[in-house]
């Protein structure tokens, strides 16, 4: 009888430990599964709900004959939110997160999964380029980290490529907080006409073309950091 009692006690303690571990994981993690949508929503008990959505699903550079002129050799152009070219480095917000029922003052690490692709017209334009001439940089807010994507990789790409961006968000309310979490910088450099990189014939081929990059949110996570407010 004593052995039976001890066995039942061990089983009860093990069951309790499994329940506690499961509840702790659910409390501290917000998890979104992969989706083809531009909005990804996830709900968990006590922490609340996180919605990761696209602000700007594409970035475009329209490269005119003037942009590709010889006197503009060495100039780098950047895409803007209004789809006009800028000669100053420009970051465009592309995704945001809304935290509902978050802990006021707590910090969350939010990872966004994105799919990056180009259309056939842009692929044709990329045929004229080599490594380093056109770039897309993904930057997570609040962490100082970035990922540089050389768009020459998309010349022969069969489909989209997958990337991630990490941001740190501080909840300023326990009701609902919306923060931009991922920025992108699309750039193209009009190379010198010395023959070292490109020649004027290729510059003429690029003039009048469009460099367009599509960015789709496919998933993400928001996790409460250990050093957050309790």
Explain the layout of strands and helices.
Blueprint: H1 2-28, E1 29-32, E2 39-44, E3 48-54, E4 58-63, E5 76-78, E6 92-100, E7 107-117, H2 120-126, E8 134-140, E9 146-150, E10 161-170, E11 176-189, H3 200-206, E12 209-224
What does this structure look like?
- 18% of the residues lie in helices and 43% in strands.
- It has helices at residues 2-28, 120-126, 200-206; strands at 29-32, 39-44, 48-54, 58-63, 76-78, 92-100, 107-117, 134-140, 146-150, 161-170, 176-189, 209-224.
- β8 and β9 form a beta hairpin.
- The strands form two sheets. Strands 2, 3, 5, 6, 8, 9 and 11 form a seven-stranded antiparallel beta sheet that branches. Strands 1, 4, 7, 10 and 12 form a five-stranded antiparallel beta sheet that branches.
- Residues 17-37 and 41-47 have low confidence and may be disordered.
- It is α+β, with helices and mostly antiparallel strands and 230 residues long.
- It has three helices and twelve strands; from the N terminus they run αβββββββαββββαβ.
